[in-house]
Design goal:
The chain is α+β, with helices and mostly antiparallel strands. It is built from nine helices and 21 strands. The protein has one domain (about 5-25, about 40-290, about 360-420). The chain has helices at about 5-10, 115-120, 130-135, 150-160, 200-205, 320-325, 350-360, 360-380, 410-420, and strands spanning about 45, 60-75, 80, 95, 105, 150, 170-175, 180-185, 210, 215-230, 230-240, 240, 265, 280-285, 295-300, 300-305, 310, 330-335, 340-350, 385-390, 395-400. It is globular and about 60 Å long.
Length: about 450
């Protein structure tokens, strides 16, 4: 793994991030070999975007709150660290902002990065780590009333569908108790992000360092809850990092980052081989409030189309992603062919932009509510698991699950989810809207 000498002199402890040596970056990256898609099951019905009804009221995300978090470790067996009481090590936290002074020329990205780190590191039951983190941090957590458990990627893809944005995706719906898990389905659990370019990964590698504690921390995952359109969600996403409130100075929107501001940044997806075995859980670090989380992007300040210098970022695709994960702050680092300067790193509050985007796309989000309620109804009344598929500009397809597909939870954690969700006097009708399974 390539590391700059200045990073070593600062005594940083960086986890491996799949980066090649500096001289290797001069070569063209090897093309990512795509796995064949899993087989498709029987098609049951189609859902056309233009035929979706709209919910009667304008929906918005409310009651957002942190639930749990954990960090994947780069070991030969599946291992995570969950924040707990051992705060001295701070080993379950994302890495710390430690920028070189005054600036740095970085090599371009060259490495392998996973599409879905949870499926790759624990392919048999990709939601087990999340559940273990939830009950470790919140022993009294009650799943009763949770309608949908999903990763931000799946919910973001459904949001794109109702907005008419073409993107292929697949996910499996599995009912556990009263809740429906949306399980992301790639061609293979170890699928990599193709055609990685730019400087985003090397920027995090050079400008951040892990706190002391367990080495090899790789991917920091968060689970939040919120309400949307009368449905109750648990949403998991990978966190870039956070800015500690006690270190943060008041910042106006668009203000430049001042040298010395400590920003906690997490790695992106490194790609070790998928592993099997019992999940190893350790404790360390402290939970981070949702309001401190940031999303981090790098952008070239040179526009090759207009051949002009620019320092504005296109929020068209970024804002809906921040909306799904409810990330309130965006960090943007502008560069000139990989040269980053402190004066070109900015922090921007995105709260007003997220709310404006929500208002501007009210009609599409009203359709999203109806779509989600319809999918939940199908899942809860079906005798088998169902898969939702979308390709190109076509309709959404609901199918039987074809081929082998992991379950959301292991039998142990599935039984715990069901037992925890049972309340005396709770309604026995999982489908009060009277929807029929396809």
């Amino acid at each position: 793994m390539w590391r700059a000498s200045s990073a070593r002199s600062r005594g940083s402890s960086r986890g491996p991030r799949g980066l090649a040596s500096f001289r290797d970056t001069q070569r063209q990256p090897e093309p990512v070999q795509q796995s064949p898609p899993p087989p498709y099951g029987q098609r049951l019905l189609e859902i056309k975007r233009e035929e979706l009804p709209k919910a009667p009221e304008r929906p918005r995300i409310t009651a957002c709150d942190y639930v749990a978090s954990y960090t994947w470790l780069g070991r030969s067996t599946p291992s995570i660290v969950i924040p707990g009481m051992r705060l001295v090590d701070r080993q379950g936290e994302p890495p710390r902002w430690s920028p070189p002074n005054p600036s740095r020329q970085l090599p371009p990205d060259r490495g392998e990065y996973l599409r879905d780190p949870n499926a790759a590191r624990y392919p048999a039951y990709p939601w087990d780590p999340s559940c273990q983190a939830i009950w470790k941090q919140q022993p009294d957590f009650d799943p009763d009333g949770v309608d949908i458990i999903t990763c931000a990627s799946v919910l973001g893809n459904l949001s794109r569908f109702v907005r008419g944005v073409d993107r292929d995706f697949r996910f499996v719906m599995e009912t556990v108790g009263e809740s429906v898990f949306f399980i992301r389905r790639e061609n293979s659990p170890t699928d990599l992000i193709p055609d990685v370019r730019g400087y985003g990964h090397t920027f995090l590698e050079e400008y951040t360092s892990w706190n002391r504690g367990l080495p090899g921390s790789e991917s920091h995952q968060r689970v939040i809850r919120y309400d949307f359109g009368g449905l109750h969600f648990l949403v998991r996403f990978e966190s870039d990092g956070y800015i500690p409130k006690d270190d943060e100075q008041p910042l106006n929107e668009g203000q430049k980052v001042e040298p010395g501001l400590e920003t906690m940044i997490n790695t992106l997806n490194l790609a070790p081989p998928a592993t099997q075995g019992v999940l190893h859980v350790e404790e360390g670090g402290r939970p981070i409030a949702q309001g401190e989380v940031v999303d981090i992007k790098t952008r070239s300040m040179f526009d090759f189309k207009t051949r002009t210098i620019k320092k504005e970022i296109d929020l068209t695709e970024l804002t809906p992603r921040l909306w799904v994960s409810q990330i309130p702050t965006l960090v943007v680092a502008y560069h000139n062919q990989g040269a980053f300067a402190d004066s070109d790193i900015r922090i921007r509050s995105m709260r007003s932009e997220i709310r404006k985007w929500e208002r501007d796309h009210a009609d599409a989000l009203r359709q999203l509510v109806e779509l989600l309620q319809e999918l939940v109804g199908y899942a809860q009344t079906s005798a088998t698991r169902l898969e939702v598929c979308h390709a190109g500009s076509g309709p959404l397809e609901v199918r039987r699950v074809g081929g082998d597909c992991p379950e959301a939870l292991s039998p142990e954690w599935k039984a715990k989810w069901i037992a925890k969700g049972r309340r005396p006097g709770a309604s026995g009708d999982p489908n009060p809207a009277g929807r029929s399974a396809p």
